[in-house]
Amino acid sequence: MKSAASSATLMVRNLQTTLVQKSGQLNLVRGIDFEVMPGETLALVGESGSGKSLTALSIMRLLARNAQWNCQGEVLFQNGNQPTENLLTLTEQEMRKLRGHQVAMIFQEPMTCLNPVMTVGQQIAESVRLHLGLDHQTGNARALRALEQVEIPAASQRFHQYPHQLSGGMRQRVMIAMSMVCEPRLLIADEPTTALDVTIQAQILNLMGRLQKDTGMAMLFITHNLGVVAHHAARVAVMYAGQIVEQGTVHGVFANPQHPYTRGLLACLPGRARQLSKLTGQAVALQDIPGQAPSMTETLQACSFAPRCNACQKVCTSTLPEWRGTTNHSALCHFDFTA
Ligand SMILES: Nc1ncnc2c1ncn2[C@@H]1O[C@H](COP(=O)(O)OP(=O)(O)OP(=O)(O)O)[C@@H](O)[C@H]1O
Ligand SMILES: [Mg+2]
User: Fold this and answer.
1) Is the pLDDT reported for residue 330 higher than 60?
2) Which CATH number fits domain 10-91+185-197+210-332: 2.40.40.20, 3.40.50.300, 3.90.550.10, 2.60.40.3230?
3) From atom 4 of ligand 1, which residue's Cα is the shortest distance away?
4) Average pLDDT over the chain, rounded to whole?
5) Which residue, of 49, 118, 237, 290, has the greatest Cβ tally within 10 A?
6) What pLDDT is recorded for position 273?
7) How many angstroms separate the alpha carbon of residue 141 from the centre of ligand 2?
8) Pair type for strands 243-249 and 235-240
9) Is 64 in the pocket of ligand 1 (CB under 6 A)?
10) Ligand 1 centre distance from Cα of residue 146 (Å)
């Protein structure tokens, strides 16, 4: 895959995440490359189990501690005019300084990162004091402002409430406030609004977009909802079985999907790009494609999608495909499906 931008906030190069088990190793992320520019949203889509969350957790160095992981490649993070750092080589202490400050993540389930025995205001204020070195009073004021920015009604009262006293939508707003309060350069949002109803989802996504515009933050946005991709992302990367198989501008990929997997996912969309505007704000779930993903224990010798591909040819089952296309839109496929 070709790419130029050296001023990207995040540049992921040949990221490979392997789960090491007694019975052998599972290659769950198989050498992926992408980048996210300042102020840009890159959507990461793909069926369940394709490795989206593991990609996010690998970047954040937050892979489950109860398992043995091996992460190879580079996760290059550019923090303003600081020198670029490879997050995979930082110490845990250096990573802790970055997390929640310059690099933040919103998890699929808000309760996983909210502390149930601390008020939501205290939690945000603590993060601000820790990362920005503010005193108690200024930290509290900043935390309150963050709750107001995510449009939590009666924020000064909510400040003193515990997570369980808030609705799911409010908790999600608290998480967004917490992740954005230190104005991170990079935000990774893993299905941040899936659990919410459509109206609240739209409000929160618009709000994140506004905050993003104000701060120039880069965002990696993981979602199953193609309507959300159409409305909120500039570019999209499609993941299949631990690989990115297609990547490009949302318009390019939706109008003219190149990889048979993406073509299958998008088959449900009428007139695709022409209808792109109609997709916005609607929940458009990814379609299921019949068949099984390949075994993750073996090293790939051929196209990983070949067993499920309706355009499969002999070469697809014997040779690894190479990237074809341009910087704006490319796919990992032996064939060219340009419309
Ligand atoms: N802690 C773990 N231990 C063992 N296997 C894991 C672990 N976490 C993830 N996996 C496996 O890695 C693969 C990728 O998982 P991942 O959570 O990244 O998928 P995903 O694309 O985020 O899916 P979803 O859309 O359902 O959230 C899956 O096969 C999953 O079973
Ligand atoms: Mg996931």
Assistant:
1) yes
2) 3.40.50.300
3) 19
4) 88
5) 237
6) 44
7) 34
8) antiparallel
9) yes
10) 32
Ligand 1 within 6 A of 28 CB? yes
**% of the chain with per-residue pLDDT over 70:** 91
**Contact 231/20 with Cβ under 8 angstroms?**
no
- Count other C-beta atoms under 10 Å from residue 318's C-beta: 11
Most confident of 167-176, 199-208, 238-247, 306-315: 238-247
Q: What's the rounded Cα separation, in Å, for the pair 102 and 115? A: 21
Ligand 1 contacts CB of residue 18 (under 6 A):
no
Q: Is the CB of 30 under 6 A from ligand 1?
A: no
- Helix 168-180 and helix 198-215, axial crossing angle in degrees, nearest 10: 10
- What's the pTM value of the predicted model, to 2 decimals? 0.90
Domain boundaries, the chain: 10-91+185-197+210-332
201 ligand 1 Cβ < 6 A: no
Q: Rounded to whole angstroms, how far apart are CA atoms 113 and 223? A: 19
